[in-house]
Design brief:
With about 240 residues, this protein is of the alpha/beta class. The chain folds into two domains: about 130 residues, Rossmann fold (3-Layer(aba) Sandwich), CATH 3.40.50.2300; about 100 residues, LytTr DNA-binding domain (OB fold (Dihydrolipoamide Acetyltransferase, E2P)), CATH 2.40.50. Helix content is about 35%, strand content about 30%. The protein has a five-stranded parallel beta sheet with strand order 2-1-3-4-5. A five-stranded antiparallel beta sheet has the order 10-9-8-12-11. Helix 2 packs parallel to helix 3. The protein is elongated, with a radius of gyration of 21 Å.
Length: about 240
């Protein structure tokens, strides 16, 4: 699912863009959803890192799009951002906030679809290499290759990387994604990155310097995954 935030104060343009997003989803069979914000201030106040793409108007009341984008980057340094504006001369300033692209109003569907397809290609590429961890202080995108293991503890997930990140959730919530990206479950509360497994001794695995317990019910699948990983030379 591609989650889009549309930040646009003019109803005429917001209705058109929402219609384009719906049409794009139907024609390309892409699961996509959109949420509308009428001004940059409310968008920033409510932002929790749950979007893949932000479509941002520049000329808006209370807080213009450029200022909203600067504040967005304080919360989320990597979410994909496209400006929509009647003022093309301002759109070039998008480089200041790492905007992927811009669209000039009035926006035609074909041009919009091209830009959205480009954004989704970019988003899917990032998703396959990193993971959004939503913490109490905001969203942090962490490269999968940096995560040594994930631990479940009292309704929270602890991601052990160069830093530790805590996010509400369970192993079941993230198991499918991470097992497709080079991880294996070694007990009911641990997912390990196979590229960090240094040794397996009895019912313990050494993972990135930590010794972790391997559950009896998970040992066979873990050994099979580890053998396949070593034999294939895979990396997440």
């Amino acid at each position: 699912m591609i989650r889009i935030a549309l930040v646009e104060d003019e109803k005429e343009y917001s209705d058109t863009v929402l219609e384009y997003i719906d049409r794009f989803g139907r024609e390309t069979h892409t699961p996509v959803t959109a949420e509308l914000f009428r001004d940059g201030m409310s968008f920033i106040d409510e932002y929790e890192g749950s979007f893949d793409l932000v479509l941002m108007d520049i000329a808006m009341p209370h807080m213009n799009g450029l200022e909203a984008a600067r504040r967005l980057r304080e919360k989320d340094s990597v979410v994909c951002l496209i400006f929509i504006t009647t003022l093309s001369q301002y759109a070039i300033r998008g480089y200041e906030v790492d905007a992927l692209d811009f669209l000039v109003k009035p926006v035609g569907y074909d041009r919009f679809a091209q830009k959205l397809e480009k954004a989704i290609f970019y988003i899917n590429g990032r998703k396959s290499q990193s993971y959004n961890i939503v913490t109490a202080t905001g969203m942090q995108r962490v490269p999968i290759s940096d995560i040594r293991y994930i631990e479940s503890a009292k309704h929270y997930l602890v991601f052990h990387a160069s830093e530790e990140y805590r996010m509400r959730g369970t192993i079941k919530d993230v198991a499918a994604f991470f097992t497709e990206n080079g991880f294996c479950r070694i007990n009911s509360s641990l997912l390990v990155n196979l590229s960090y497994v240094d040794a397996l001794r009895g019912n313990e695995a050494q993972v990135g310097g930590d010794v972790l317990p391997v559950g009896r019910a998970y040992r066979g699948e873990f050994m099979k995954a580890l053998a396949g990983f070593i034999g294939g030379g895979a990396r997440p």
